[in-house]
Structures are given as structure tokens and as C-alpha cells.
Request: fold
Amino acid sequence: MIKQLRVDDRLIHGQVALMWSKALGTKGIVVANDKAATSGMVSATLKMACPSSQRLLIKSVDDAIRIANDPRGKDMPIFMLVDCVADALAVVRACPGVIGEVNVANVGRFVAGEKTSVLTSVELTAAEVAAARELCDCGVPVFHQVTPNDARSDVAEALYQLA
Reply:
């Protein structure tokens, strides 16, 4: 079971490695990112950032979807990370009943082009805003929460304010 799917353009970093994996009580982290899955340097960097208490898998988005849907992992609490809303939408659509919640936490800082500030640390292009709206309609809780100690903000409500 994917306890939380987090959208974070940095993927694994201090907040994720130390705070979120502990708060969620996960045993494994799955990074679902096509670039990380094919780049030895990116993969090595993510491995260094992952705490030894967590099993780490770095997979393409398609391979991560297969892992999420594998019945052998249904009882294992997993924390999945993607770096954009479009990938989160792809995972949620392809994994009905497997994703517990989606945290759109830190996204958009490294994307070129015109962006809209949706929430603190969330800046989305027009295509990502559209993907976020679809994500909010998938029947899974979608919120913004940078650290476990922060209050949750409803992403759908923030998107509604844009219209």
C-alpha cells in the first residue's frame, strides 16, 4: 500500500528522508522518476540521501506503477515520490485503491516557463494546473503539507481560487 504519494521536485532530501518516512511509518521508499531510473548520477545521489532504515527503489514511472499494483506489497507501507503533478496523476489513475493520499508539497521551482503560484512552494504551469485539477477528481485525498508538523491545505480549494 502506498501510504503517501508525494510530489516533490527534489525527490529525496532531509524532510523526506528523516521526517516523512518516520511520520508515515514506512519501510520503503519508491522514487518514480524516468530520469532518476536511467541516470547513474541521479540514482547515486538519491541513494546517499535515503536513510538506512528505508529500502529504496528507483524506478521509471511505469515500473513504479507495476510495483504499486503488485499484490505482494499490499501490506507493506510504502512512501512514493514523484517530481511533478503529471506523474502523480499517472500513478493515481493506474493504481486504483492503492494510493492512500497525495501530498503536493514542493513543485515547480526548477521548471522553466510561465507558472502560477498555487500554494507556498507550489508553482505550476498551465499543463500542471490541469493535471492537478484532474488529480483532485480521482477520489484520493490531495493536499499540500511541506512537513508533518505543518497544517494541511486542500489543493482543490487552492485551485478553485485560481479560476
